[in-house]
Structures are given as C-alpha cells and as structure tokens.
Amino acid sequence: MRRLAALTGIFLATIGLLAIALVASAAPAEQPAGPVLRLNAGEGDGVVSMNGFNLPDVRVARGTTIIWTVASDEDHTITFLAGSPTPQLILPQPEDPTGRPLMFSPEAFFPTPAIGPWDGRSYLNSSPIGRGQDFTVTFSTEGRFPYLCLFHPHSMTGTVEVVAPGGTGITTQADVDRSIATHTPTVHQPQIDQMLATRTNPDMIAGPAGSTTWFVRAGTDWRNGHLDLVAFLPGELEIRQGDTVVWYVDHAVPHTVTFPVAGAAPPDFVLVQLPDGTVVPPDMLGPPPGGPPAGPPDPALLPRLIVGPAGTQARPSPAHDGVSYYNSGLIGEHLLIPPLPKTWALTFDTPGEYEYVCVLHAGIGMVGKVIVLPRS
Question: What is the pLDDT of residues 89-113, one digit of tens each?
C-alpha cells in the first residue's frame, strides 16, 4: 500500500483544497493548548506488522489532543465513523459499474481531518499514512468515540473515552510508553518466532504423472490477534519441471502473486483516471496552476484513483512459459473489498528461476522466488 499512499498524496495536490486538508491532517497548525497524548498506530518492521493501536482504549480529559503516529512499514488509517457507514475501499465507477476498472473510494483514501476541536459528530479519516506520519484530533466533547483502521478493520480498533477535566482513570503518556516498550517483546515476539518456525515449510500433495502440487502461504497471521506476517511462506521454493504451485491467503489482507516480465518493473496497481476514461500518467500530476481553486472542485470533473492492471488476473498460458507476465490479481479476503478469489495456481514447465512480488506490499519486502529444476 505504500505506492498507493504516495500516489494519493500526489493526486490530492491536483485538487487544491484537498491538498490543504492533507497538510492539515499531517500536522496541527499550532501547538495544542490542552493536554497531549501520543499513541502508535501499528508497529513493526518490514513484513512483520502489528496491526493495533497502543493503547487501543484510552480515557482522556475534554480538551485533550491525541496524536497518532504510524510506527510500522505497513500503511494504516485512523478513522472515526461517528455513526456513518464504514466505507468500502474499492467501488464501481458510477458511469459504468460493470465495464470500467474499479475505483478506490474517495471517502476512504482522501483525508477528512477535524477543522479545529472535534465534537464527535462528523466523520474523520487520516487517509492512508505511512511510517512517521501523524494524525491529530482535539476532543471537545465528552463521550465514547470508537475508531478503526480501514485497512485492518478486523483487528485494528480502539476507543477514546472523553471525560470532564479532573476525572479519574486518565490515560497518561507513561501508560502508553510502558505498553509500547513491553507489549511487542513479551506478547508478539514469541508469536513471530512460532509462526516463522511452523509456517515456512510448504505443504504438498502428489499430482498427475509424477508431479507435485505445492502450497505457499501469501501472508499469515496470529489467529484472534493483531499480528501479520506480510510475506510469502516460504519465500523461496524449489520444485521440479511440471509441478504446480498454489498460493493461498492465510489472513484477512489481500495480496497479488505477480511475475513481471524479466527485467521489467511490475505493472501499476493504482492509476489516475478522468471521468471520461482517460488515464493520466502520475508524472503529469502536480499542484494546479495558479494555486488552489477559489471554491470546492466539481466532483464530476475530478480525477479518480482506479485499480490498475496489477489488480487484474493475467495468465497468458496455463503453465509459466519462462518469459511472459503472469498475475493473480487481488486474491484473499477483506471486510471492505468485494469478494475475491482465495487462491491462485500456476504450473511451471520451463526450468529456471522466477522472481515474483505482491504489488501491494513489495515495498516492505513481500517478494518470492520459484526455482524450477529439470525433471530427471
């Protein structure tokens, strides 16, 4: 998702007013007047991702500002629904819900920051943000305010309880820092070690004519927890000519299995498209001439983020021919994405070494290799 978050930032710069909103969501314009509490949104390095908030449930006094900072290489959102429906991440385009590429929901992927202190009644969303980026909310009204990450709605949730100043049980920065320092080493590190020790050996069954069918995890998680390994397990697989590999997603995060043409970069997962169907190259994006528009932009004229070719399956032949582009498209499951295939398979008839990636997570290290040996 790093590529998507980066392109979203560039894309918003073309819209003017939304670009200003993005800046406002990244850092407050001035120092908060009241108490400040800093929380982590996610933790982890590379393919290890703890998809949770530290602490997820906090109690603060009215007037407190909370600053969430992403502390993982996986992107997250901080989203307060405030009674509104949870937005789908991917939607049909309104002009042609069947024939056009699907689009990324503006409600999910564009920032909706609080303008001044927040009273708890309006939808807030950071948009996808990455390591070191912040999202800030000042709470002006007492009550209980649940929030979530739209990328990890199954496991990454929290609640801010706002009480009158002087109330008891206020969460302190020391409480948060203590959790950050102890939770991952004592709870998650043993889980990581166990998953790596038990889930890196592929399952296999006998196939036709002496071949073997191999099964590779495309990501996995600690059940009923908030820990993901965003990796192919095993990352390198040695097979024989004529064998088949089946990739299956073992957690609630979608992936792709993408074999680029040798020497070429993987195709784009995200493109920018005008309502008339014209695709705009990312290098043409930038701030609009003359600065932001005088009024709100016309939604009918705004470009959209759409699912690019890496989100669509491509299998020019049933068996990998050693040279062509092969791609699963999105596979797996996600609460906020339309139903997806759960597995994808490819047979390898040509000896060689074939590197592949998940285009959503290649930037954090989700890469793999299939080594095909001649069948003697």
Answer: 999 988 887 778 999 999 999 999 9
Architecture field, domain 199-267+309-373 = Sandwich (2.60)
The whole-model pTM stands at 0.89
Main-chain phi, psi angles of 276, to 5 degrees: -80, 0
Estimate to the nearest angstrom the gap between the alpha carbon of 338 and the chain centroid: 15
Q: String of b and e for 55-84 (b: at least 16 CB within 10 Å)?
A: bbebbbbbbbbbbbbbbbbbbbbbbbbeee
| 299 pLDDT above the threshold of 90 | no
Q: How many CB atoms lie within 10 A of CB 25?
A: 24
| Backbone CA torsion sign across 77, 340, 347, 314 | negative
* Burial label, 126 (beta-carbon count in 10 A; 0-12, 13-18, 19+): buried
- Per-residue pLDDT tens for 194-220? 999 999 999 999 999 999 999 999 999
The Cα 43–Cα 53 span in angstroms is 8
Domain with CATH 2.60.40.420 in the chain: 2-188, 199-267+309-373
Q: Are 326 and 320 in contact (CB under 8 A)?
A: yes
Pairing mode, if any, of strands 103-104 and 343-348? unpaired
Q: Which amino acid is at 156?
A: M
- Give the three-state DSSP class for 372: strand
Instruction: Give me the CATH code for the 2-188 domain, please.
Output: 2.60.40.420
- What SS3 state is found at 148? strand
- Please calculate the CA angle 28-33-37 and round it to the nearest 5 degrees: 70
